[in-house]
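EI: anyone free to look at a 156-residue chain?
SC: sure, send it
EI:
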Amino acid sequence: MSDLGNSSYNPKGAAVYNIGCIITGLALFPFYAGIHEWYTDERWRKRLLIGVQIFGFISAFALIMIGIFSEDYLAQHIFWTQVFYITTLAVLILVNISLVTHPRFMRPIGYYGFAVALIDLGFTISFAPLFEWSTTFTALGYVGLLAYNTFKAFGN
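SC: here you go
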C-alpha cells in the first residue's frame, strides 16, 4: 500500500496519497477525542477508554508521519508504519473490551472490531500486503461504524 506514496513508483499520485494520509490522520484526532462520550462511572471502563484515546492519538499522529515520510524516506517510513499498526491494534482491542458490555454499544460492531484486530495482528506478524490493505480498510470501516454507534447512542 505504501508504494502508492512512493514518488518513484507513483510519480503522478504519490503526493495525493501522502496528503490523504495526513488528512486522514488529522481527521482521526476529533474521532478519538469523541470517545469520551462512552465514559461511564465504571472506573475500569473509563481507564480503558482513556487508553484508547492515548493510543488513538499516537496512531493518528503516526498516520500523519507516514504521509510526511513516504517510502522515499524508508527508515522513517517503516518506523511510523510499525507505530501506526501496533497502536491501531491496541486501540481495536481496548475499545472493544471496554465497550462490548456497554448497554448502548451495538454488539455486532464489537465482533467486527475483534475481527479487524485479528487482521491487524496478522499484518503485524507477517507484513503481507493483503493484510496491510485489509487492515487499513477494515479499520477505517470500524471507525465509521463506531462513529455511527456513538451518534445513535448519544445523539450528538
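EI: DSSP finds five helices and no strands in the chain.
SC: 👍
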